[in-house]
Amino acid sequence: MTVADLAIIAALIFVWGTLSARLERTDMTAPILFTAAGLLLTHGPLRPLGIEPSRESVKLLAEATLALVLFSDASRVGLRNLRADAGLCLRLLGIGLPLTIGLGTLAALALPGYGDVWLALLVGAALAPTDAALGASMMVNPAVPARIRRLINVESGLNDGIATPVVLVAIAGVAATEEASHTGPAAALLELAIGLAIGAAVGAGGGWLIKVCRRRGWVAEGFAGAAVLGLAACCYATSVALHGNGFIAAFVGGLGFAAAGREAARFVPFVEETGALVSLLVWLLFGVIAVAPAVESLTWQTAVYAVLSLTLIRMLPVAVALLGTGLGRATVAFVGWFGPRGLASVVFGLLALETLGEQAARPAVAVIAFTVLLSVVAHGLTAEPLARRYGARLSPAEHSAGATGLVPVPVRRLVRRSHSASHHADGSGRGGPDATGEGR
Fold first, then answer.
1. How far apart are CA 126 and CA 160, in angstroms?
2. CA 422 to chain centre
3. Do 282 and 347 touch, CB atoms closer than 8 A?
4. Are 280 and 38 in contact (CB under 8 A)?
5. What is the number of other CB atoms lying within 10 angstroms of the CB of residue 182?
6. Top-level class of domain 55-422
7. How far lies 394's CA from each of 110, 136, 391, 435, 438, in Å?
8. What tens digit of pLDDT does each residue of 124-155 get?
9. Which of 11-25, 93-107, 292-306 is predicted most confidently?
10. What is the rounded distance in angstroms from the CA atom of residue 398 to the CA atom of residue 227?
11. For the CA atoms of 76, 276, 246, 199, what is the dihedral angle to 10 degrees?
12. CB within 8 A of 204, min separation 6: which ones?
């Protein structure tokens, strides 16, 4: 990446940061803007200015982004905080998510060229995690009860970490099939086990150490956030150095940090904001690398799969998971629809592309990319109007019941950077209320 490329990227970030509030009032989200910018810089009138990232830089950025997002999401939710309304969360994550992966895998097997179950599993698992950032305006809309917004946010904060092992095992399975290698899913499972152990040890140990040092006055407030950022990187890098899986180490490390650090979790926004910044670059690379090939290779089967992925494959498992909870049909449908496919799916696709090579990964990446592209547009444009319509259909009693009962959640990725949420925090971005508008 040249200095000119860096200048273009820096200018885009500056423009978004300067005009974000105004753009979001027109339903222009950061994923839409940066994806479009990446496409225009490589396939449009701005092509002479286009950036050409190397494979190494793409892989490094994708891995760093996913590690930061997994750590910050897990540390923001925290194991203790799930007690308040664990039932609904566990239903979506323990029933809805596996059903979504299963349905997505079965549907992918029907696509042309998907005879390999590992390739189908890669598509089904990569498109299962949700991203609340694509519905940023909905996440801060008071017309939607706080409990429902929080439920969607908790799910999106944890399901990418839970789906990550399945995606990585699927990638290993495809690699073993393509290369006739002795390494495969078994070796991937061993890496996951090592990553889990290292993440738990480093995350919990680091959280406890920060807590103790802060109580003794050894931690300078201005550098505490950087310490947590270093801990997230340490979880990932230590696991990779010891032949474990860095992503699982980052996710489990975040859970361990939240459990052991307690009040130290107030410094997580520094990690979250860093992850939000690099995620902008991932959306830009998505436009540069994946969008045009996905559209050029688009078939009617891929288009049908993308529509099913955002509707039936997502909404049916959610309906099954929420049976018997007392939530109304409108609420179940609303939660089911707002399961956007976003950052995690993009990173999974980029990792598959870099790990497997273009020829082996092309079928899966094409489906993932088009589904995410459709989700970016559909969920970005429907977030505000559907939130208003859903809120208008609720009775006062339903609004009151939905205003309590769920715990504070991670302010999810770019949601935290939206204008509607930003006025809740102080100038440092730390210690303010969450994205639902209620204080912690």
1. 9
2. 20
3. yes
4. no
5. 8
6. mainly alpha
7. 39, 21, 5, 21, 20
8. 999 999 887 777 778 778 888 888 888 888 88
9. 93-107
10. 43
11. -20
12. 256, 257, 259, 260
Burial of 47 (0-12, 13-18, 19+ CB in 10 A): exposed
Place of tokens 């950036």: 51
Q: What is the mean pLDDT of the chain?
A: 80
Q: Tens digits of per-residue pLDDT, 256-294?
A: 888 887 666 677 778 888 888 888 888 888 888 888 888
Residue 223: both structure tokens together: 């550098």
What would the two tokens of residue 250 be? 């980052």
Lowest mean pLDDT, pick from 10-19, 106-115, 236-245? 106-115
Name the phi and psi angles at 26, rounded to 5: -105, 20
Q: How many other β-carbons are positioned within 10 Å of the β-carbon of residue 7?
A: 11
* pTM, full prediction: 0.78
Q: What is the DSSP string of 86-147?
A: HHHHHHIIIIIHHHHHHHHHHHHHTSTT---HHHHHHHHHHTS---GGGGHHHHT-TTS-HH
- Whether 416 contacts 139, CB under 8 Å: no
Q: What separation in angstroms does the CA of 284 have from each of 9, 120, 260, 365? A: 9, 26, 36, 16
Q: Which residue has the higher pLDDT, 440 or 152?
A: 152
pLDDT value at residue 421: 39
Type of residue at 155: E
Domain ranges of the chain: 55-422
**435: its two tokens:** 């994205």
Q: Cα-flanking dihedrals φ and ψ of residue 80, to 5°?
A: -65, -35
Kindly report the CA angle at 127 between 124 and 131, in degrees rounded to 5?
155
Q: What pLDDT digit, counting tens, does each position of 27-44 carry?
A: 677 888 888 888 888 876
CA distance 193 to 109: 29
Longest dimension (CA), the chain: 63
Least confident interval from 38-47, 83-92, 158-167, 429-438: 429-438
The secondary structure of residue 347, as a DSSP letter, is H
Q: How confident is the model at residue 417 (pLDDT cuts 50, 70, 90)?
A: very low
